[in-house]
Design brief:
This protein has 101 residues and is mainly α. The chain has helices spanning 2-13, 18-29, 37-51, 54-62, 70-82, 91-99. It has six helices and no strands. Helix 4 packs across helix 6. The chain starts with a helix and ends with a helix. Residues 26-45 have a biased composition (Low complexity).
């Protein structure tokens, strides 16, 4: 489950440029030649939950937290269940990190 950890690291860095954040995520989610198909499938599933929340994250950030979509809620829950540092980050910090991908 590398991807959720990378995502949270992105969220907590905050000051890093969006391009650097996106390339950091892309480099880890693509998998290497030594990655097994099982871990690749698992990682891809995790990425999909978070990436599917981008539109909801945009609405959440633009509305200053007033609009909370189901996909964003699922991504926030997923990150907090799988990445200990996500429990410390606010919803808006995580939503902004999702948008930076």
């Amino acid at each position: 489950m590398k991807s959720p950890a990378v995502l949270l690291s992105i969220a907590l860095l905050g000051a890093a440029p969006a391009a650097a954040l996106a390339s950091s995520f892309a480099g880890t989610s693509a998998g290497g030649s030594s990655a097994s198909s099982a871990s690749s499938d698992s990682s891809s599933g995790n990425d999909k939950v978070v990436l599917a929340a981008r539109d909801d994250a945009a609405s959440f950030v633009a509305s200053d937290g007033a609009i909370r979509g189901a996909q964003l809620e699922a991504a926030l829950r997923h990150l907090r269940e799988n990445v200990p540092q996500a429990r410390q980050a606010s919803d808006i910090e995580l939503a902004k990190a999702i948008l930076a991908l």
